[in-house]
């Protein structure tokens, strides 16, 4: 892929999964498939490369989980700085112009909706969905260089939250009625706890 062309997918997976009881939720299986692999397989048809942000100790396990997929890794240089730092690390590992960004615990996002986000962001700094009346930070498509700057500015000038990044980036907001044409709002939920995982098993 030539610099500043193409599409990448960035999966943020370097968290500690504290609400999941210390088990790395990226490795937890839903219907026999680890969450991380489900997310990667959803991204794969929509992009040219996948970058997984993670801690160094996670990488061997993630490499096994993602065997057979063309995946690169972006290891956190400083641990436990949160998802904004992880997002920035992942974005720094690609030369693509635009990136679909998603958390490792969002296994239901439709590939077709990611394609729509890329189209919506084509001439802008990014695109995000509106779900349940609120703008969502993930999944999103962002202009890679603009989003890197927004991540840095979120730490310097704001509280360093994902919502700060997207406030600074100023992406297109895909309205809820359009989102609903691609998926039920439940497709955009995170699996943060074991209860969330049980609910997901019931609903899929």
UniProtKB/TrEMBL annotation:
GO molecular function, one term: GTP binding
Binding-site residues for Mg(2+), renumbered to this chain: 105
Cofactors (names): Mg(2+)
InterPro entries given in the database record: MobA-like_NTP_Trfase (IPR025877), Molybde_CF_guanTrfase (IPR013482), Nucleotide-diphossugar_trans (IPR029044)
Binding site for GTP: 12-14, 25, 53, 105
Gene: mobA
Domain notes: The N-terminal domain determines nucleotide recognition and specific binding, while the C-terminal domain determines the specific binding to the target protein.
Catalysed reaction equations from the record: Mo-molybdopterin + GTP + H(+) = Mo-molybdopterin guanine dinucleotide + diphosphate
A single cellular component GO annotation: cytoplasm
EC number, as in UniProt: 2.7.7.77
Protein family membership: Belongs to the MobA family.
Subcellular locations according to the entry: Cytoplasm
Chief location: cytoplasm
Source species of the chain: Halogranum amylolyticum
Protein name stated in the entry: Probable molybdenum cofactor guanylyltransferase
Pfam family, one: NTP_transf_3
PANTHER family linked to this entry: MOLYBDENUM COFACTOR GUANYLYLTRANSFERASE (PTHR19136)
Keywords: Cytoplasm, GTP-binding, Magnesium, Metal-binding, Molybdenum cofactor biosynthesis, Nucleotide-binding, Transferase
A biological process term (GO) from this entry: Mo-molybdopterin cofactor biosynthetic process
Role noted for this protein: Transfers a GMP moiety from GTP to Mo-molybdopterin (Mo-MPT) cofactor (Moco or molybdenum cofactor) to form Mo-molybdopterin guanine dinucleotide (Mo-MGD) cofactor.
Enzyme class: transferase
Entry-linked Gene3D superfamilies: Spore Coat Polysaccharide Biosynthesis Protein SpsA, Chain A (3.90.550.10)
